[in-house]
Amino acid sequence: MLRGVLRPAVQLTSRYAPPRPPSYSFCLREKEKARTIAASLRWLSQVGGSGSMIFRQLFDRESCTYTYLLADPDSKDAVLVDPVIELAERDAKLISEMGLNLKYVMNTHMHADHITGSGLLKKLVPGCKSLISKESGADADIHVVHGELVKFGEQELEVRGTPGHTNGCVTYVSHKEKFALTGDALLIRGCGRTDFQEGSSDTLYDSVHSQILSLPEEFALYPAHDYKGLTVTSVGEEKQYNPRLTKSKEEFIKIMENLGLAYPKKIDVSLPANKVCGLYNLPDDLAAKLQD
Fold first, then answer.
1. What is the pLDDT of residue 281?
2. Whole-angstrom Cα distance, residue 107 to residue 169?
3. In degrees, to the nearest 5, what angle opens at C-alpha 60 toward C-alphas 246 and 287?
4. Cα separations (Å) of 198 from 69, 165, 167, 257?
5. CA–CA separation, 19 and 30 (whole Å)
6. pLDDT exceeds 50 at position 28
């Protein structure tokens, strides 16, 4: 069942063939180099996908947060999901280097463990708009609800409400490329905690099973965090190996009640800032970046 799922999460499709052996790349003229890079970016694909989306998974070492840069290779329209404020300049530089037009900077939910980079990125990349679910209660240029589509170029992400970790959690699904960005609702062999910020184990269990694990088993799943060095999973894997969500709802609730997790160390700073797009009562070094 899993043989097809366990292929590399990001692969070059057969449509890309380097015009010359890599060892001779230094001989390519500048235009040829540009075409080679563009081709390699264009045909990066997900497990089972069509290979028509640019996809980058970025990482913050401190909070173990994944930020995702997705783009349409033809229009160059892009979205950035779950940015971290300390790395906003990194993200803006990458977007510029890749020649992308950042349309939306968006979040899967209102995070408690880091300050979102949405507000700073709006300054660094003029013209982009912030986006978050309406149920989050956070400020943004655009609020989305369950069932809506986020479109950029020829690409689109379906918004699926997956509350339980927070009321405003959503999962973004690319049916064309066969993957989903699950935020904190579903982690690799785990899930988001439910003991604060409107958390509900009962709700989370139903959300994950009805909105994420109901997707085809070959769909790749990319979480907002991982603390063990894993980068991607799949619907099939989590249905078989997730130690919490393979249990009955009653067993799941008991597991979540007895996790004994520490109070999030950044929650008192992160939540007030994230309610207003990461722009409230910032540490001096971060506030200074907004004044530059």
1. 55
2. 9
3. 130
4. 28, 7, 6, 14
5. 14
6. no
